[in-house]
Amino acid sequence: MSGAKILIVESNPPDLIAAQGYRACDQFKAAFAELEPSVKSQVAEPYATKFHLEKLDDIDGVVFTGSGVNWSVDAKEAAPLREVMEHVFQSGLPVWGSCNGMQLAAVVLGGSVRPSPNGLEVGVARDTRKTEAGKSHPALDGRTDVYAVPCIHRDEVERLPKRAVLLAENDHSPVQSFSYRAEGVDFWGAQYHPECSATSIAKSLRTGNSVFSAQTALIDDLEAGERDARAADRLGTTCAALHPKERTRELANWLMHVKDRISS
Predict the structure, then answer these.
(1) Which CATH class is domain 5-263?
(2) ∠103-133-73 over CA atoms, to 5°?
(3) pTM of the model
(4) At what angle do helices 79-91 and 100-108 cross, to 10 degrees?
(5) Where are the domains of the chain?
(6) What is the three-class DSSP state of 69?
(7) If we measure between CA atoms, which residue out of 23, 27, 2 comes closest to residue 12?
(8) How many whole angstroms separate alpha carbon 78 and alpha carbon 94?
C-alpha cells in the first residue's frame, strides 16, 4: 500500500509518557513499519497540545491508541480525546481503536463503559471468540474462531452503541471487538492490543507507573512467551499466536481496508 498516511492519536498524557519512558503511538508505528514499510505515520497528542483540524488534511486513516491513565474515557479528564474523535468521525475517515481507543468510540457513539466486574485483564485476552458477525467481517479475517491476543485493561464496554456490530467476546469482557459503519462513521476496534508484543506488555508492568503495575507475576511468562511454549501456555496462548505476523492480523486487515477506501 504505497504511501498511505496514518494519523496516530496518542492517548496518554505527557506526565505518564515521561514516567513510562515510551509512547503508545510508537507501538503502532513499529507494527505498521513491519506490515507495510510505505505507510507514513504522523502523531497527534491531544493531552499535550490542542488538536487542529488541519491535522486531518491529506490523511487516509486514523488510529486511537490504548492508555494507562487512571480515568475512564467518559471522565472529564478525557474530554480532549473525545473531542478529537468527534472531529475524526465527522471527517468520514476509517478509524481503528485499541483498548482505550475502542472504549472511546463506544462512548462517543452513544454507548457506555465501566470498570470490568471481573477485574483487570492482563497478559492475553484468553479464549476470545468470534461472533457469527465476526466470522464474516473483514476486521477478523485470518483469525481462527477462538484466539488470544496480548491485552492489558481495566475498563470495558458495558453497552454498545446502536448500529454497532459485535465481532468478538470472551468470558472476561462481553465486547472484545466491534465495528460501526453508519452515518459516515467507519470504525473498527478491539479491547485487546494487536499492536503490542508480549514483551511490551511486560515492560508496561515493570514501570510501576500505571494502574496495571501490580500484575508483575506475569512478567517472566510475557517475556518468554514468544519462544517458550510452556510460558505461552500459562498465559493462555501459543508461541505462534504471539508471533508478530499472527498477532497483528487486525492491523493488517485495517490497512487493507484503508487501501480499499483510498482506491474507491
Answers:
(1) alpha beta
(2) 5
(3) 0.95
(4) 70
(5) 5-263
(6) coil
(7) 23
(8) 22
